[in-house]
Design a protein that fits this description.
Strands 1-2 form a two-stranded antiparallel ribbon. It has helices at about 25-30, 35-50, 60-85, 90-110, 115-140, 145-165, 180-185, 200-220, 220-230, 230-235, 240-270, 280-290, 300-320, 330-354, and strands at about 190-195, 195-200. About 70% of the residues lie in helices and about 0% in strands.
Length: about 350
């Protein structure tokens, strides 16, 4: 009778000890998601205002919260992708106003269908995004300096051109011009569900989240974005088109600014040239609350959307609770710090459980 020899131990590097083949528990996967901290924070904020503001949980109030969140979220999503790619855009806030001003003034001066102004605005706004991306990839200064320069230029141009053309700091009304109604239907209309009115910006917001999430998780471009944010030199070494990726990300921010700008214009008929200053920080805050790292390479579009939702709940929750709105910035600062600490803790726990 012969003895059966024991099976040899697998050698290093074989499938048996390849950690990529080790099954990961749902809990570990959940702990590794960048938006986990923001989701926990959103639930906490919702419960907080549900307790201290009775009107907060009404359907009409939630519609108002979603609208406020969507106006931030439309920009927070592309800004988050840019931050995952390791860059910033400090011109994002005034770019929204620039987009609206171009559409309005061009349509008014040419006495053309407003869709002409809308489409020209799209081209010009995307051009601003290309300018930021090219300046960043062709020169040495960091994105902070490049986009700060763009911010200052756009701020001056918004005011200068508006006063030059309109003799005031606001544009002329284009509400009676051809194409205004159809453009308003696309960018600033209202739809009703269950007797409650909702703004179409909510649909734009959700669509951007879906597209951005698909890009990040299901396409090669998403891999490039994470690679560039994780380490530009390493990304170049493995063949990632770093320059094209960054330019594309800046164009994404410009596209979001165009959507927001058209909503601004067709909601109020006129545009104030000084609007938008400071909003770029709000977009960045929403992305950070949503789990994006300042250093790049980590984050998600869903997290940025949840960060915008938290922002909307706080801004409107204070009103529904009838508190002094002067405290809003205080709550925003506390929210940012708590979200950062929570996201840091979640990442550490995720690393421990791997």
């Amino acid at each position: 009778m012969t003895a059966t020899a024991p099976a040899p131990a697998p050698s290093p590097g074989t499938k048996a000890d390849d950690e990529r083949l080790v099954k990961t528990s749902p809990l570990r996967k959940l702990m590794g998601r960048p938006e986990l901290g923001s989701v926990v924070g959103a639930v906490a904020v919702f419960l907080f205002f549900a307790i201290f503001a009775d009107s907060f949980v009404r359907a009409a109030s939630l519609s108002t919260v979603l609208y406020a969140s969507s106006t931030i979220g439309i920009m927070a999503v592309p800004v988050a992708l840019l931050m995952i790619g390791g860059e910033f855009d400090l011109s994002a806030g005034v770019m929204v106003t620039s987009s609206a001003l171009i559409s309005s003034m061009l349509s008014y001066q040419l006495t053309a269908n407003v869709w002409v102004g809308v489409l020209v605005s799209l081209v010009v706004t995307l051009g601003i995004g290309v300018f930021n991306g090219v300046m960043l990839t062709r020169t040495d200064p960091p994105s902070f300096i490049i986009t700060l320069g763009t911010f200052l230029m756009l701020t001056g141009m918004n005011l200068g051109f508006t006063k030059l053309i309109s003799d005031t700091v606001s544009t002329k009304s284009i509400a009676d011009m051809q194409g205004f109604s159809s453009a308003k239907d696309v960018f600033a209309s209202t739809f009703t569900i269950g007797g409650v009115d909702f703004k179409i910006t909510i649909l734009w917001w959700l669509a951007l989240v879906v597209v951005a999430t698909w890009i990040l998780l299901r396409t090669r471009v998403g891999n490039w974005i994470y690679a560039v944010g994780g380490g530009e030199m390493a990304a170049r070494a493995v063949g990632v088109p770093v320059n094209k990726t960054k330019i594309g990300l800046y164009m994404g921010v410009a596209f979001g600014a165009w959507i927001s700008g058209q909503h601004l214009l067709f909601s109020f008929d006129v545009v104030q040239s000084g609007e938008g200053v400071g909003n770029e920080l709000i977009y960045i805050i929403a992305a950070v609350i949503g789990g994006c790292l300042i250093t790049g390479g980590y984050g998600s579009a869903v997290g940025a959307a949840v960060g915008a939702l938290i922002f909307g709940m706080v801004s409107k929750g204070i009103v529904f609770a009838e508190w002094n709105p002067d405290w809003f910035k205080f709550f925003l600062g506390v929210m940012l710090l708590l979200a950062t600490l929570l996201n840091h803790w979640v990442r550490k726990r995720a690393e421990v459980t791997k």
